[in-house]
Amino acid sequence: MHQPTPPSTADANHRLRDGPPWLPPAEGVSGQPRNRTTRPTPPRPAPGAQGPGHVGGLPPTHTALICVALPGLAISTEQGQLTGRGLEGFYRAGRRLLARCQVRVAGREPLPVQARMAGSDSVRFVGTLRASPAAGPDPDVVVERTRHAEGTERITLYSSARHPLRLPLEVALGTDLAELSAIAAGSPGPELPPSVHDSGLRWTTSTGNSSVTADPPPADALASAGLLRWEFELPPGGTASVELRVRPDGAGPLRAVGRAATSPLAPARAAGDDPRAGALLRTSIEDLQALLLRDPTHPSDTYLAAGAPWRCGLAPAEALAAARMTLPLGTRLAAGTLRTLARTQLRGPGPQAGMIPGPRRDAGAHLPPGCTGTEATLLFPVLLAEARRWGLPDQETRELLPVAERCLAWLRTTVGDRTYLCDPQPGGPARSETQAHAHRAAVLGADLLDAYDRPGGAGLRQWAEELRKAFQADFWTEDRGGGRPAAALTPDGRPLTHLGSTAVHLLDTGLLGAGRPAVGLLDKVQTEQLARLLGGPALDSGWGLRGLGAKEAGHNPFGHRAGAVRVQETALAVAGLAAAGYEKEAGGLLRGLLAAAEHFGHRLPEMFGGEQRTDGSAPLPHPAACRPAATAAASGVLLLTTLAGIRPDAPAGTVTLRPVHSAPLGELGLTGLRVAGAPFSIRVSRLGLAMVEEAADGLQLGA
Question: Do 357 and 231 belong together in one domain?
């Protein structure tokens, strides 16, 4: 029986479900003003104060401005001031280094007028105040704050007064050095007393430390109040700036993987008739870069964290799924993810040998929690086979092939004489999506084994064909609406017929090259009926696919497996429906998700409310959703590259184009993709015709 990874403190809620939340902390810097101890201490928030809407469970994040450059995070509200309440603060490797950063100019807090994300890793706040009595009702000082996830904040004062101004600037600082899991659970601990250190303040406990240094150094530092103070003389039209640097004491600047010149993701761009396409692809790639992490023992290998703020660590199934959807941006992320997970594969004798371990994941009201280790083990050979087609070098494929063989051996051993792959716990159900993952792994794994003259391909294909035939009979339930696939079979063979978005895994998601057998589990008639169901109002909310149909028992538009819109599954549905020729349904889901992305500033969350779309409505954010999330950001890449229908076969030196002929977004150009290790650009016309504009030397257009 598969043993799940023990959850963290905040994993009591099913939303915190997949693996270690953080890497170990990195290292950083520090300087020293004159200490004064005569000012009163400003009021501080009560320990554990979470703000409205937090009654057990996770504190809400749907209105938070989350800057990410892992392992760094900065979480803010639209007010700009960090008050120490809820999740606010600067984090590194899961520890809050600074909880409170409150600015006062001339004794007053600036009036917030705008808060705007300036990128995945930064946010800009603008406030105003009236500093001159002769200014009338108009503000004459602008206070701009730019906050970065790497641990810096720049505060800039702009004067438009007609006379010189003397402006005192005060910044009140505080922290608890609490872990994110404890903060999420509502028990961060008390604010710690600081000491003056170099050009700022320092906090130290037995479990960690933090310092804030300022440039220029403050004129005064008041340790008892956590206060830094400057006085600026601003001429008419003048400016003055202060930069704060938040670090673990003695650590250097944060080096986020995604900001390095060696990022494994190609900087692709989209342009065309619909400007939302370009914005979605740009934001998706920025979010993916922000979520990149290095394997601490093999720094050249990178992978994606599952999402911020709750899951900033390795979740095997999500990391593999996201890497699979980003293959059009190159194969380096796939290779790093595969190598990282290969080192976790279970060895030795026993029924678990060959598994990629993973924790359990809640599956909603109708099914017990599922094992993400099963999903990851089945995704491993699929990603390796597809990465090879997109251009993964032969040597790297050969190095990873034994791991894929052990995954496939685990599959055959676990299935044994049965037809279906059941949950690892005794008496567990046979889930439809698990059969889809297993079937795809067998078909593509056999293709991979045959390509390297390894044994076992014929047996995998035979079992896959038996599974496909049995599935079409056992998992399909007839009804007056034309039938539907069962979500699972109980151990006694009884079908569970609730309809949910996990049915998209039954389709051929069309991510591999041309010339291979279909890897969908349904026959043509069943696929046509599934397309109707996916495009119908029970599942399609108008913004994307609900996790559970609106008419099913237990439907909850905010249930993360019971009715909320699942972005990853909606994108897979678009790819699968387009590959099967159901362009109308694919186009409807695509346009709905693109409209939702526009409401979210093109930064798609992992899920959002499944309320039906109406004229003038907007998608409802889920208060606990990760945003950014790896699979949601990768979905933006998959959605747009699906329209071009790129089917590469790098070992054969060919690429086939199967564009969506209805061209739901009009003309679309994609530049800076990667096929066969070289830049690849393509344009799809308004008539749905595709033309390659840039490709690797020697790459031929296939039939």
Answer: no
Q: With H, G, I as helix, E, B as strand and everything else as coil, classify residue 252.
A: coil
Domain boundary among 212, 230, 254: 254
Element (H, E) at 390: helix 372-390
Place of tokens 């200014």: 135
Q: What value does the mean pLDDT take over residues 415-424?
A: 92
Question: In which element (H, E) is residue 669 found?
Answer: strand 668-675
Rounded Cα distance, 420 and 569, in Å: 23
Q: Are residues 282 and 231 in the same domain?
A: no
Q: Rg (Cα) of the chain, in Å, rounded?
A: 27
Indicate whether 174 and 321 sit together in one domain.
no
Host domain of residue 618: 259-694
Span 532-577, pLDDT tens digits: 999 999 999 999 999 999 999 999 999 988 999 999 999 999 999 9
Long-range contacts of 615-619 (CB under 8 A, 24+ apart): 619/543, 619/565
CATH of the domain at 233: 2.70.98
Last residue of a domain, one of 201, 223, 254: 254
Which two structure tokens, joined as six digits, stand for 102? 């409150």
Q: State the Cα–Cα distance between residues 530 and 540, nearest whole angstrom.
A: 12
Residue scoring higher pLDDT (649 or 702): 649
Taking the C-alpha atoms of residue 494 and residue 86, their distance in angstroms, rounded to an integer, is 46
**Comparing 16-20, 78-82, 399-403, 684-688, which segment has the lowest mean pLDDT?**
16-20
* Tens digit of each residue's pLDDT (9 = 90 or more) over 645-670: 999 999 999 999 999 999 999 999 99
